[in-house]
Amino acid sequence: MEIHATTPSDWKKADTAAALVIPLREDSALNSPLLSDAGRALVGAVRDRKVFCGKPGDSYALPIADDGARAIILIGLGPDADPDKEKIRRAAGKAIDCLRSHRITRLVIDCESHRWPVQSFIDGIVLGQYRYDRYKKPKPDAFAEEIDDVVLVGASAFALVDEVSACNHAARVCANANWARDLGNAASNDMTPAQLAFEAQTIAEKYKLEYDCLDAGRMAELGMNALLGVARGSKEPPKLIIISHHASHDAPTLAMVGKGITFDTGGISIKPSDSMHEMKYDMCGAAAVLGAMKTVGQTKPTINVLCVVPAAENCVDGNAQKPGDIVRAYNGKTIEVHNTDAEGRMVLCDALAYLVDHYAPNKIVDVATLTGGVIVALGHYAAGVMATDDALYAEIEAASKVTGERVWRFPLWEDYSAMMEGEHADLCNIGPSRQASAIQGGCFLKEFVGDTPWAHLDIAGTAWGAKGISYLDTKFASGYGVRLLSEWIRAEADSRA
Ligand code: BES
Ligand code: ZN
Ligand code: ZN
What we know:
Number of strands: 18
Structural class: alpha/beta
CATH superfamily of the largest domain: Zn peptidases
Number of helices: 14
Bound molecules: ligand BES, zinc ion
Number of domains: 2
Low-confidence stretches: none
Largest sheet: 9 strands, mixed
Helix content: 25-40%
């Protein structure tokens, strides 16, 4: 997607592939420089008849030509001078069907009549146009093209320099989120641990990042028996994937870790079959950190960034790990495996301990579809976050406010940690059932990060399945985390500049 700026006088009105995007404030006069007299009369009529009044999050498409343009898309800003970004994203999502049915490939956006978060509108357009047709032929009459050109119109193109760059950045980060959605949506017979490693290596080569991948043999030498235990029941060999961006020795190092279970049958503690197919999404944490690493590769921030993905398949087999088995993790702690379905924490704990020991990062954020319990607590509308460091949580929360990927903090009180003590080992991989299960996962992982400031995002609810978010299709992975982590890293790099 190409985004550039022009002035109302330089903008060529007879643009038959374009839709005009006009923001409309409730209770404020319509004075868009993009509209002709006829167009203004039409929008005025829509407003007078109360068909569309500019309510926040609302959008309305007028499928008519105005001076040659193919449609007018009205975006509701509400009554505030500073409209909510998420509402704008959703308004964009609602306009997608109209853009498609009118075969529109260019947007001409009014940045003159009001100040509004145009970059959030771009988010909604790029995420909302996502489709996944790797395995299914699109319907023959479906419009396959996408919006590839966006013109921001303002009184002075010079004044729009920041806006253009914010919009280009938004488009790029959302394209990375869509790429992560592709990884999530791929069937598990295609998206194996080896394939995840291949995807990571491809990014590393393309953006000149460092790449390393530990195989099962190396993991055994290093004593990563928690991760290896999960992989035992599968013919797919596990991988510990590491890509990194090195900016300078004096700069801080931020680390991201993503759960890469390419399929979760539950293992011997097998899951019920009705929705087991959804467990191909159990690598969405990995997809999120890899997608954010793509942003890092493209933007080369002035801080160091590490990305670690423990990847394995959790299967049932004669060789699979059994309930009651005890393993010794990389950091020497012993773990009693009472439920082989609590496998995410088993692969993450070795990755976290190795990361701390080997790279000593300044901060760690892990992202994982870890527990069904987080869905019980928050549904599909927020990730549960557990953090050992208030400042780090504040950074995540601030990034979340920018991107609309919601977070909600849970406590990590000692009483919850006590639930994770093992009978015969240092730790048990589960605590009492149906009690703060998301927090139990967090407390377990906390045992592997030492003193490093750390935050854990449980994205089991947000990785897919949210209804009513117009720019995300419930049938597909959401790409949750790519934008959040990209923003976290951008803000950290900016704060040092
Ligand atoms: N991958 C699942 C968590 C999950 C459940 C993600 C539903 C998305 C939707 C995870 O490995 C798991 O099975 N967790 C168990 C943990 C329990 C055994 C302590 C769970 O939440 O039921
Ligand atoms: Zn599981
Ligand atoms: Zn899982």
